[in-house]
Amino acid sequence: MGPSPAGEGRAGDEPPLAPAPMLLQGQEYFFRSPGIGLDFQDRMYRADLVSEEPGDPAPCVLVLARAADMEMNELSLALAERDIRMVRIDADRCVDLGLTIYTDAPLIELDRWLLRPVLVWRRHFDVTAIPVDPTTVQGAYVREQWHAVAGWLSGRADWTQVNAGGAGEYLDRLTQLRDAGDFGLSLPRTAVTTMPGRTRPGGGRCIVKTAGHHLLEPQPGALRGLFPQPLDVRRAAEPREPAPVLVQQYVEAEQELRVFVVGGEVIGFRVRKLDPAQLWVDPESVSVEPVDVPTGLAERLLALSAHWGLNVAAFDLLDTGADWVFLEVNVNCDWWWFEQRSGCTAVSDAVHAWIGAKFGELAGEPAHR
Question: Are strands 255-262 and 222-225 parallel, antiparallel or unpaired?
């Protein structure tokens, strides 16, 4: 073979690969999210086991989620017991969905049913879960269309939205921290940086966190964790991260609280774990128990929820003994796991009752119990 053409490097001259981003190193969490629908009402209606009366479009609760959303599977059953129709658009099952949305009337056709959504709840509907290949023209097209339409559905003004103020990407973690401080909650000192090894807010131990979602879904249905990690100061000389991360002061705490706000109700759980990621990587070793939320803290969380337009939300806080330190609010507000660990169904009961009562108010019907 002759010499290489000018400007063409040899294999041995290739630059070394950059190290993986810090939050992708050592993360063993992997979850395969099944796309099989377990929704009670969906199965009953599709099997023609429900007698439908002719007449005006049926009022309903419309949920944008995904098939594995256990909280919404339980809500479907609870609403059926109240004679309230619930329908779903799941991201991992939406490609073959028969859907028509009327722009001049608050109505939708979902397969063979004409429905009038009166309450809309967007939870885990994310375009990364749609089973298409986003590297192809068709896959990119499908994602873009659903991104636009789902955003419009979850912001449409002639339907009442659950968590209207926190829909979409509005309530990012940095906005959360700013507003929580304005409402009198203590905060860990925080930096946003692409050089975490050189950044130590507070001067002591620090935690590195993602500025975005805790879960990454590079292929539909395959979720990988991006969970908090202790900052190793020996990494100061490493190259810059390819995207900014949060570096937060490590706060010594007597206990961690997960506080659910449902309407005007506040429900607390004490969480005992050894490290920030243990909730996901070793959940069986995490202890959860119901706990009363102090009145002053409850009032601040209710005020924050109202400010953000959140009806159902979950707050993570640390009890330092002298104060309460705000970590984040979870708008999707998954509560099923906490109830399973603690043997308490208070959050489910509150959510089912609140949705039922809100539906009755909007549809002009008494809420069935």
Answer: unpaired
Euclidean distance between CA atoms 202 and 238, whole angstroms = 21
- Quick one: which H or E segment has residue 354? helix 346-363
- CA 22 vs. chain centroid, Å, equals 22
Residues 85-143: tens digit of each pLDDT:
999 999 999 999 999 999 999 999 999 999 999 999 999 999 999 999 999 999 999 99
Residues near 151 by Cβ (< 8 Å), separated by ≥ 6? Answer: 168
DSSP class of 124: S
Structure tokens given for 281: 């990587």
Query: What tokens does 13 get?
Result: 């001259």
Measured CA to CA, the distance from residue 57 to residue 109 in angstroms comes to 9
Q: pLDDT band for position 304 (50/70/90)?
A: very high
pLDDT level of residue 1 (50, 70, 90 thresholds): very low
- Bin 182: left if φ > 0, else alpha if -120 < ψ < 50, else beta: alpha
On whether the CB atoms of residues 261 and 330 are closer than 8 A, the answer is no
The residue whose two tokens read 């098939």 is 67
In terms of Cβ atoms closer than 10 Å to its own Cβ (0-12, 13-18, 19+), residue 138 is exposed
DSSP three-state, residue 313 = strand
Distances (CA, A) of 350 to 123, 126, 266, 313, 335: 17, 26, 10, 12, 11
How far CA 333 is from CA of 31, 81, 329, 350, in Å, comes to: 19, 23, 8, 13
List CB contacts of 188: < 8 A, sequence separation 6 or more.
201, 202, 248, 249, 250, 251, 325, 327
The three-class DSSP label of residue 87 is: strand
The widest CA-to-CA distance across the chain, in whole angstroms, is 85
Alpha carbon distances (Å) from 48 to 59, 100, 112, 156: 19, 21, 12, 31
**Contact partners, residue 192, CB within 8 Å, separation at least 6:** 174, 211, 244, 245, 246, 247
Provide the whole-model pTM. Answer: 0.87
